Amino acid sequence: MNAPHAGPTADEKIIDETSIRYEGWPIVGVCFLVATFAWAAGFYGQGVYLAELQRVHGWPASLISTATTCYYLFSAVLVVFVSEAIRTLGPRRLLIMGIIAIAAGTALVGQVTSPWQLFVAYALIAFGWAGTSLAAINNTLGLWFDKKRGMAISLALNGASCGGILGVPLLVGAIGKFGFPATSIGAALVIVIMAIPAILIWVGRPPKRTLPPVDAFATTPAPAVQSIAQMRRAAFGSLSFWTIAVPFAMLLIAQVGFIVHQISFLDPIIGRERASIAVALMTAMAVVGRVLFGFVVDRMDQRKAAAVSAISQALALIVMINTRNEAALFAASAVFGFSVGNMITLPSMIVQREFSAAAFGVVVSLVTAICQFTYAFGPGIVGLLRDAFGSYAVAFYACVALQIIAAVIVLVRGKAPLAA
């Protein structure tokens, strides 16, 4: 007969996640900083790299977009194993390795002189992206947070939007003043100098939580703990899992495809500088959207919110396709951006609600990997359609179609086999 759990041992803690002094909140700040650099260099920066490589080398958009697609595909494979990497290396080592890789790739991308070198630089950024982006941040914060996990993730991922707000204008401005090669090296140094000390100082050993009391007279044995492989098999057999993964994969194909090509699309209409401002406005609205959404997310239907967000982005793209008015383009960029952050955050929040806490890290890594594997084709598809038809109209209408279909699929619900 098992004795009841009398209380926390010396290695366990009673955790109050609502306390301002809780050790998990500095981890949120570190993840915010890591997300800022990850999205600036590995996501929003892709649009800057595309436009600059076209200008410097005259390479076609389809070639550079194909390199971007390969980058996302490779990192998608790596993302699947983020849960295992954190269990083996610990969050501190994984984040540091990710920062070093993304900085090295960023430095190299400005030095390339032939297409094969671009693929090598992007492979390095892929390793960094896997170790610093959505799956890594979700898994890291999952070690420190349970009840406040949704809030912690939402706050940390505002760093992703800051990566666009600050990163794109700074990159474009620095390139104009110092040139692309010097700017890429400078950006890499900033990433390393700011991120690694923060990780070393604040990201330590995650707390051991108190165990729930054990009933000494219980006749039903406790359920066996599932292995990671069992959790993956159960997720793959769940309708709930697929109605998260499939629609968000479609939404992110459209979203990433547009974002990577946004500067190239707007450049001939309003100029490079104003195009970078439009990107900054879009990402600023992503912060506003995520913060406002955070106040009501626990009281609303998250799947319906995803559908509404998808339709709003589709309408914004339709406006951008059919106008050359600068004010309208800025307004449409703002509307599109309002849901950009939530498209990144919502899958984790739906998983948090529909799957168990034990399965959270594994399921989020799977959803992230599937979404990234598919949205990796977004920049390439948009680039190919743009080259084939001579403008972005057909490419962006294809994005609109994906968003409308995804809005329908995400409303389909299923019972999660790993639900709490």
From TrEMBL:
Coiled coil region boundaries: none
Listed transmembrane segments: 22-41, 61-82, 94-113, 119-145, 152-172, 178-203, 239-263, 275-293, 327-345, 357-377, 389-412
InterPro entries linked: MFS, MFS_dom, MFS_trans_sf, Proton-linked_MCT
Record CDD domains: MFS_YcxA_like
SUPFAM superfamilies tied to this protein: MFS general substrate transporter
Keywords: Membrane, Transmembrane, Transmembrane helix
GO molecular function: transmembrane transporter activity
Keyword Transmembrane helix attached: yes
Domain Major facilitator superfamily (MFS) profile: 26-418
Pfam family, one: MFS_1
Record bears the keyword NADP: no
Cited PANTHER family: MONOCARBOXYLATE MFS PERMEASE, MONOCARBOXYLATE TRANSPORTER
Protein name in UniProt: MFS family permease
